[in-house]
Amino acid sequence: AQEKFTLRMAETWGPNFPIFGDTTKRFAENVEKMSNGRLQVRIDSANKHKAPLGVFDMVKAGQYDLGHSASYYWKGKVPETLYFTSMPFGMNAMEQYAWFYHGGGMELMQEVYEPHNMLSFPGGNTGVQMGGWFRKEIKSLDDLKGLKMRIPGFAGEVFAEVGVNPTNIAPGELYTALERNTIDAVEWVGPALDLRLGFQQIADYYYTGWHEPATELQFLVNKKVWEKLPQDLQEIMRIAMRTASYDMLVHSQHENAKAWANIKEEYPNVQIKQFPQDIFQAMYDANKKLLKEAAAGSEIAAKIIESQQNYLEQSRAYTDISERAYLNTMAEVE
Amino acid sequence: MRWIIKLDEGLGKLSNLCGWIAIVALILMTANVFYDVITRYVFNDVSIGMQEMEWHLYSVVFLFGIPYALRSDGHVRVDVFYNNWGQKARAWVNLVGALLFVIPFAYLIGTYGYSFAIDAYQMGEGSGDPGGLPHRWIIKAVIPLTAIFTATAGLGMATFALRVLSGEKQYEEGHGGEGLA
Amino acid sequence: MIGIIMFGVALLMLMLGFPVAFTFGGVALFFGIFAEGMDLFAFMPYRIMSVMQNTVLMAVPLFIFMGVVLQRTKLAEQLLSSMGRLFGGLPGGLAISTILVGALLAASTGVVGASVVAMGLISLPVMMAHKYDKRLSTGTICAAGTLGQIVPPSIILIILGDVLGLPVGDLFKAAVWPGVVLIGLYIVYILILTRFKPETAPAMPADPDRSRKQEIVSALLAIIPPLALIVVVLGSIFTGIATPTESAALGGVGAVVLALIYRQFSFQMVWDSARDTVKVTAMVFAILIGATAFSMVFSYTGGDYLLEEWMLQLPGEKWGFIVLAMLVILVLGFFIDFVEISFIIVPILAPIAEALGINMLWFAILIAMNLQTSFLTPPFGFSLFYLKGVAPPQIKTTDIYKGVLPFILLQILVLAMIIIFPGWFGMSSTY
Ligand code: NA
Ligand code: NA
Predict the structure, then answer these.
(1) pLDDT > 70: what percent of chain C?
(2) Are B22 and C282 contacting, i.e. CB atoms less than 8 angstroms apart?
(3) Residues in C 130-169 with any Cβ partner in B closer than 8 A
(4) Is B149 on the interface with C (CB under 8 A)?
(5) What local confidence, expressed as pLDDT, does residue B177 receive?
(6) Would you call A153 and B46 a contact, using CB atoms and an 8 Å cutoff?
(7) B71, C231, C312, C338: most buried by Cβ count inside 10 Å?
(8) Which residue of A has its CA nearest to C304?
(9) Centroid of chain to Cα C238
(10) Alpha-carbon separation of residue C254 from B114, C104, C164, C231, C274 (angstroms)
(11) Of A53, A62, A105, which is closest to residue A80 (Cα–Cα)?
């Protein structure tokens, strides 16, 4: 008989977390089916391991064989991991997948993760994330100055450059803090997940996104574990991870569309807004400046940023005459 | 016996040092939170670094507080039988409990906590948020550090129990909430 | 199965009187090493780190500090005894005041450890001094301190909102009436009890030299400063100046300012208060750490899967399902902490409830009410340990166990009322 493997996976999400959690479940099911039961994956959610942001360390140390999380969470540990989730004013999901699988993205990602004894694979995309819930309309750059917003990570740095005060609030107190104006705005994910936190009840302005145009989750694999697997199981894992990520992208589209229809119907107070052009320009410049600084500080960061920017340029030119042209056409006949 | 008394007194001082650190951290933490609220509300200014300092200090309060409370018998007990027992029986409970529960538990947290902190040090881990605090290893190192102090406080519990068994010391009646009268 | 045996062993070991926190930790250690090996404990630093980064729990030391300062400066005593005096010759006045102050604290925090300990520090000494029955005093304090779970803002409701996918705001709104009814019933219970057994809660003696009117005026005057402090804390939350957690720091600083105004301030007082706070905080968090080791061993040895299997055997008919689900949660609450229940059990129950056409908001409130009880149920109810940790030695663990019994029954009564008459609470059992 052939050897059987059971791999333990730690996910950053809580049990039954919609969309994200469905992705790992689908992955586990597919792996088991495709391997005819030779490879099983046991998923532990955050309630079990109690370390949502410890997934990197636990997979690295081998306490878990696999992890499901998002690369940019490890920015504080390994700054270069930032680039494999989504960048402000960066590629959209299709362009980014093309970069990962055909444009050299995977190779760069492995280069970053290899020293930490891990492999990283794309793990599902949320599509364009919404720009956040605001209690006041933002009409000019001045309205952003001194605005208190829950916005973590690199996007927070970009916002800080244009005068926003990024503020830490415990997730459990976010709703209360926004409701009572302790903070003025909150960035979360998109309609499907935001709806659960009830921001639509207390904030009227829902801004479109620019800061995470294609948030890609990740599967982390401990390298020693990976190397122990026979080649056919490795291939099965590869295919199951790739399918699961694609599945999550379409699942996100489905759930978000449903949730948005729901918000439109039940919360007519909610208005979709876009930042004015001068704000976008200021943030675009701030983003450029921060990337330049990052590239100056690290050789590998410079390499990744360059690869992404070149790829974006080439890919976007084609997106412009295909997707964008099509959407424009549709807008005209509506 | 003389050296046990010496050792016990030394261990007691160590735990009191932990208490001193925790007390200072508590006062700083209260001031820190207060300051953050005021600057945010009055001056509309937020510093993520200062906000992160809050939980750094709060962690120091309870992690250093644990060995201190162990020495001053601040940890709650179920007293269904304990308070009716004589000095010797209590000393045995504390001696065995310290050796079998406290010290091994602290040992494991200390060992695994050490690699936890070392890893953060080697990666140069810091906050990923804008303006957050660098050097995450420092606060992570508090876990193994206080595990050591908890182990020494456990040892102190054992040495004190030995002193009680020898009849040289007595447990005070009615420990627990007494220090709070 | 290992998990179940472990509970039994922990229970026996607790009886020996070794500190609760280290009994949990030590028992977990032996079972963990035996079942999974040493390396299981490599998870402990992560679990401790998640407590360290859980900034909502910062409310614990901050509220305790406020409580200790109020107690050391005698301001708490003044608040409670004046409130008690307002009730005139009515026995039980202090207990009712305790419930009311507990309700105010509950509205400013959702962290049970913080409010039970603060209430224990503030009102237990006063009740003891006025010759209250030990059981009534401790039961009242545990119940009042635990109100924070159902009265919004509340951690349990936030967790349930997350697990069930319900907006937190809806849950907060839905919990208001059940909370108010519970508080009302506590007060009614105290009134009835003290009517028949006035010796359990003697009325505050009136000053013979003063008229009732003078008495009321002086009591009102004495209430103002400490009450103002509570208003500042609550007000800072409602106006958004501070988050609930931060408001606790305003309370601590405010208490020190009050001490200054009343010439009770000294650096020694602040230092001593901080020392007491550290001790009690350490007690609370050591229990949390011991308990997290315990639940780690429980779930990594398959306890969570076992619970899942049990849950899937509940009946598939609405009322049978509700009643049995509530019973199971109640019984599990005796042994397992509410976070584990919310995360392990509730996700399994939710789809069944949904399929039965049960209103999830109503279901969530039932669970929250039920889980609140788990803080009070012996042997492992956290509120009981917390209060014991700050109680004077003449209060025995068994006094507290017996003292909370009537309040547990009242909670179950309210739970039954919400189940049977959801309309009274502005809810309905179906969509
Ligand atoms: Na509350
Ligand atoms: Na319990």
Answers:
(1) 99
(2) yes
(3) none
(4) no
(5) 38
(6) no
(7) C338
(8) A48
(9) 21
(10) 39, 16, 38, 11, 15
(11) A105
**Cross-chain CB nearest to B101 (options C23, C246, C249):** C23
**Per this entry, what is the length of chain A?**
334
C21 in any annotated domain: no
In contact, C371 and C338? CB cutoff 8 Å: yes
> In chain B, what is the greatest distance between 2 CA atoms, to the nearest angstrom?
63
- Which positions ≥6 away from C395 have C-beta within 8 Å? B177, C124, C134, C138, C388
What tokens does A29 get? 């099911």
Mean pLDDT of C176-190: 94
Give chains near B: 3+ CB pairs under 8 A.
A, C
- Whole-number Å distance between alpha carbons of C248 and C113: 13
**Residue in C63, C21, C20 with CA at minimum distance from that of residue C277:** C63
User: Could you tell me the pLDDT band of residue A279, with boundaries at 50, 70 and 90?
Assistant: very high
- The pLDDT of residue C257 is above 70: yes
pLDDT at A223 over 50: yes
Given the DSSP bridges, would you call strands A66-70 and A216-222 parallel, antiparallel or unpaired? antiparallel
Residue C385 CA to residue C14 CA, distance in Å, equals 11
Is residue C431 in a domain?
A: no
Would you state the structure tokens that stand for residue C48, as one six-digit string?
């401790």
| Tokens 């004495």 -> residue | C222
Looking at the domain assignment, is residue C299 inside a domain?
yes
| Confidence tier at C431 by pLDDT (50, 70, 90) | low
Instruction: Give the pLDDT score at B173.
Output: 67
Residue of A180, A222, A255, A267 to mutate when probing chain C, most C C-beta within 10 A: A180
Does B27 lie at the interface with C, CB-CB under 8 angstroms? Answer: yes
Phi and psi of C313, rounded to 5°?
-95, 5
Mean pLDDT of A120-141: 94
Instruction: Calculate the average pLDDT of chain A.
Output: 93
Find the closest chain B residue to C286 by CA distance: B66
Domain count, chain C: 1
pLDDT per residue over B165-177, tens digit each? Answer: 999 888 876 544 3
Going from the Cα of C333 to the center of ligand 2, the distance in angstroms, rounded, reads 5
User: How far is A257 from chain B, CA to nearest CA, in Å?
Assistant: 31
Instruction: Give the CA-trace dihedral at A97, A98, A100, A103, to 10 degrees.
Output: -170
- The complex's ipTM works out to 0.92
Residues of C in contact with B85 (CB under 8 A): 17
pLDDT tens-digit map of B57-81: 999 999 999 999 998 888 888 888 8
Neighbours of B72 (CB within 10 A): 20
For C37, phi then psi, to 5°, come to 95, 165
Residue C126 counted as domain residue: yes
Q: In the structure encoding, which two tokens stand for residue C95, read together?
A: 């207990």
A207 phi/psi in degrees, rounded to 5 = -90, 145
pTM, two decimals, is 0.90
Q: Cβ of B128 and A148 within 8 Å?
A: no
Is the CB of residue C47 less than 8 Å from the CB of residue A51? yes
Average pLDDT over residues C330-350: 80
Domain region containing C254: 35-425
> Subunits that touch chain A (at least 3 Cβ pairs < 8 angstroms)?
B, C
Of C46, C54, C161, the CB nearest to A54: C46
Q: Do A197 and C240 count as a contact with CB atoms less than 8 A apart?
A: no
B67: distance to nearest CA of chain A, Å?
24
**Yes or no, beta carbons of B40 and A148 under 8 Å apart:** yes
Please name the residue that has the structure tokens 């105004």.
Answer: C261
Residues of B in contact with C280 (CB under 8 A): 74, 180
Instruction: Look at A243-247, B150-154, C118-122, C310-314 and tell me which has the smallest mean pLDDT.
Output: C310-314
Strand partners, A271: A205
Tens of pLDDT, residues A94-108: 999 999 999 999 999
A253 close to A128: Cβ distance less than 8 angstroms: no
Cβ separation of A170 and C46 shorter than 8 Å? no
